[in-house]
């Protein structure tokens, strides 16, 4: 299998405080990898290094075959990223957002038009095409943001709490889009605080105080800790 993410002793310190402490893991092509941790555990700091916006203090990582320490610009061009807080421009409509973000990734006008039509059709957005994104239902906005993150067919997509605030049915629909992308060979790296969502991942890591304390399939972790749920596993690790 092709490895699309590999962290080797990945570390980030701020003065005497080590926020991320020697992370070591690999993620394969087409894998859905869950990255879990409580607030302050270091997962956001780790993700910032992996997407090329923060330089490691020590160690390194390869993402989409590029080093985050020395090839951050190439990392950014070959990944997709979706944040819960900011993923689209609210004051632009669907087409304008696709044209803007697609243009950043170097897609030509003909390709952008094709992508626009595909997104509208796949998500059933025909009745919303003239509306500003800020007026879309939250669930549709999140699914649109995910589709925009995939416009340039990146090898890896990073999703930071992508389903926060949406209802369970919409969350399930969103995960269907994730599965479809993974089936096409896109690696999905996702943070979530919904432990039931973490069950959908192929493998998950659990961070506590800047370190990965557990990493395996959901089924294997529950068996290892004698737990019925991943929440129980996490509580055991956090003690």
TrEMBL record:
GO MF annotation, one: ATP binding
Keywords: ATP-binding, Nucleotide-binding
Gene3D superfamilies per record: P-loop containing nucleotide triphosphate hydrolases
SMART domains linked: AAA
Top-level taxonomic group: Bacteria
Boundaries of every ABC transporter domain copy: 5-234
PROSITE patterns, per database record: ABC_TRANSPORTER_2
Name of the protein this chain belongs to: ABC transporter ATP-binding protein
Organism: Psychroflexus longus
């Amino acid at each position: 299998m092709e490895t699309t993410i590999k962290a080797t002793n990945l570390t980030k310190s701020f003065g005497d405080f080590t926020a991320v402490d020697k992370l070591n893991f690999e993620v394969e092509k087409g894998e859905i990898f869950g990255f879990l941790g409580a607030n302050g555990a270091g997962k956001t700091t780790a993700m910032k290094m992996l997407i090329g916006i923060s330089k490691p203090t020590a160690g390194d990582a390869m993402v989409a075959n590029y080093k985050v320490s020395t090839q951050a610009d190439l990392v950014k061009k070959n990944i997709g990223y979706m944040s819960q807080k900011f993923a689209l421009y609210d004051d632009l409509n669907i087409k304008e957002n696709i044209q803007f973000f697609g243009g950043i990734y170097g897609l030509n006008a003909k390709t952008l038009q094709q992508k626009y039509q595909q997104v509208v059709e796949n998500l059933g957005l025909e009745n919303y095409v003239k509306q500003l994104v800020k007026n879309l239902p939250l669930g549709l906005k999140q699914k649109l943001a995910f589709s925009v993150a995939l416009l340039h067919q990146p090898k890896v997509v990073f999703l930071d709490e992508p389903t926060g605030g949406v209802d369970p049915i919409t969350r399930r629909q969103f995960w269907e889009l994730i599965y479809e992308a993974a089936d096409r060979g896109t690696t999905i790296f996702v943070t979530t605080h919904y432990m039931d969502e973490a069950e959908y991942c192929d493998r998950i890591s659990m961070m506590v105080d800047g370190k990965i304390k557990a990493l395996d399939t959901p089924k294997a972790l529950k068996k290892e800790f004698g737990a019925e749920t991943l929440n129980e596993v996490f509580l055991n690790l956090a003690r």
